[in-house]
Amino acid sequence: MKNTAEIFGENVFSESVMRERLPKATFKEVKNAIYKGHRLSPEVANVVANEMKQWAIEKGCTHYTHWFQPMTGITAEKHDSFISPADEGKVILTFSGKELTQGEPDASSFPSGGLRATFEARGYTAWDPTSFAFVKEGVLCIPTAFCSYGGEALDKKTPLLRSMEAINKQALRVLKLFGNDDVERVNTTVGPEQEYFLIDSEGYNARKDLIYTGRTLFGATPPKGQQMEDHYFGVIKPRVQAFMKDLNDELWKLGILATTEHNEVAPSQHELAPIFTTTNLATDHNQLTMEIMKKVAQKHGLVCLLHEKPFAGVNGSGKHNNWSISTDTGINLLEPGDTPYENAQFLLFLTAIIRAVDDYQDLLRISVASAGNDHRLGANEAPPAVISIFLGSELTEILDSIENDTPYGAKEKELLKVGVHVLPKFPKDTTDRNRTSPFAFTGNKFEFRMLGSSASVALPNTVLNTAVAEILMQYADVLEGASDFTAALHDLIKSEIKAHKRIIFNGNGYDDAWIAEAEKRGLSNLKATPDAVAHYLDKKNVDLFTSHKVYSEIEMQSRHEVFLDKYCKLLHIEAMTMLEMAKQDILPAVSSYSSTLAENILSKDQLGIKSEFESKTLEDISADMKTAYEAYEALSASIVKVEEEEDLVAKADTYKDTVKEQMEALRTACDKLETETAAEFWPFPTYGELLFAVR
Ligand code: ADP
Ligand code: MG
Question: Ligand 2 being an ion, which residues bring their Cβ within 5 A of it?
Fold first, then answer.
């Protein structure tokens, strides 16, 4: 058997594989493409393609695909074979540089948000050499960007790459001011921690709601949920352990460094954390991780649920986006450092992030908005919809003393001068770290915790990178012209803290008092997806993205439409699933049970025996069936009406304000019926059966 070191990355056409297999000159050009953004010449592309094909064939591949991330949020692939006809009825295996670098999937069935109406319907995919090709299930996968022929991005990856360029450019300007002349490239890094549920496939297969929507739309609260908190970090069950081992092996083969794994708070909930990497790679890896989790689960008779809120009343699943900025010389810019200069540089980047988060609260909220995540934000154990930053008491005190020109700490006599004094050491890993903050500083990185578990990390990081790039640009503009750099730096940090400290909050983010306080501070609280998305096209947001060339205005308009369209479609599917389950499964089951009760009452009556239980239950059930049926009728009627609405904004609002409430009413009525109906009549597995089946 191979050991971990041997299997790690064995299915990746990585830098080391390329170094080994490509001619020296070709390898050098590929490296320039990866690290310096150079274009590959057709000749070089041909050499790379041929070697890549050879390597893939050795791994048993017969097909290749351009692997991309359309606006659906999941990945897409269209397999093409290497086979070309040759003389005498034979075939040869071919793969040219052109096939490597450019593909033409039929773009017409991917969401384009109206771009298709204005532009060429076709789209093309272009190799992103910064992300390595890999083999998955006998197919050579080539990570690509997906664009329309007009050049508009139709995917999530292209804007992310553009945002990485934007922050690189501005961060380099700032670093030059601090004398870091050796730095040639600045990258953001991401390590997304992934939460998920694992349930038995038998229970899953018996639930239409799980099959169609990934979450339960009905289900009464079981006697046991997560009250005992006995699952969190608890012993991992053998079946789950076997799944995790297999999952790690599969991920390692793809060069994905999954490291820690543990149980989460809810029963059947778990978490996987990878080692961080450059943002675009981390994005690809997280997509692959989610896909492979589902496949590996299947092999173990399990189903992996990535939905943000698969079960009402127990914790939902999130994704913690650990984010930092580092240089090609290996320096993490969010690491405070030891010298006054390093400290000052750290404080400037920190201030830029505080300002960026404050100025673009709405965009960060939008970046995590989805119908699924709406169930989670603000619910049990999840961050509220209000964005705030946790810095910890030590760092907050330091900022306070800079802002107010007051001495830091009890003993210090001197005032803290940025760029002159060494910052006092503060503990890197404070154990009382705030778990309720949506955006927390954790010693040398920020953890953005609002992401839903099923989301792509592309958009949140596109927003973060671009917003921070904008502020760094403004800072560089000020500081490049300063005659006394250190004094200007101190003043800038001081005034910025004063202007943006409202976004800093170290207390309990789940506390109702905080929501009131946040409102006083003027922080935004965009509760549902349509509320948030309504701000996407605000002038300041369009200005931000267009000025850094991350999105054009047209691309933003198209994405605005995709957001709302997706929201409406999702709720439509959920509502239709509920209607079907209510009418075809729940109400008929309850009706049968009622008949049984009625028959029992009659036969007991003939024998002169009283039937208190049966009579009372039949009465209750009959009343509750009426309520449920009325809720069914109301939802049914309003679904027809809302689908006739042509204005997308109005449609999304109706789903949010009316349809969701009616769905809730139908659920409440049916869940009540579940508690009243004999178990043998209930048509599908209950919460208790779903949540505690894996042993
Ligand atoms: P914590 O104790 O805060 O959970 P860990 O060191 O376990 O910290 O890291 C949690 C996640 O953060 C991991 O996925 C890790 O790879 C990621 N991470 C650590 N450092 C960085 C960084 N500089 N940039 C991005 N992600 C990081
Ligand atoms: Mg975490």
Answer: 193, 320
**CB-CB contact of 71 with 155 (8 Å):** yes
pTM of the model: 0.94
Please report the pLDDT score of residue 503 as a whole number. Answer: 98
The residue whose C-alpha atom lies closest to atom 6 belonging to ligand 1 is 275
* Residues β-bridged to residue 323: 190, 446
pLDDT tens sequence across 607-639: 999 999 999 999 999 999 999 999 999 999 999
Q: With bands split at pLDDT 50, 70 and 90, how would you rate the model's confidence at 368?
A: very high
Between CA 444 and CA 440 the distance in angstroms is 11
Atom of ligand 1 nearest to the CA of 257: 16
DSSP class of residue 88? Answer: G
Q: Check if the beta carbon of residue 120 is closer than 8 Å to that of residue 150.
A: yes
Average pLDDT over residues 534-540: 98
d(CA 271, CA 261): 6
Residue in 43, 60, 55 with CA at minimum distance from that of residue 13: 55
Question: What is the Å distance from ligand 1's center to 324 Cα?
Answer: 9
Count Cβ atoms within 10 A of the Cβ of residue 377 and give its class: 0-12 exposed, 13-18 middle, 19 or more buried.
buried
Q: Whose CA is nearest to atom 22 of ligand 1?
A: 324
Percent of residues in the chain assigned helix, strand, coil, to nearest 5: 50, 15, 35
Cα 335 to ligand 1 centroid, rounded to whole Å: 13
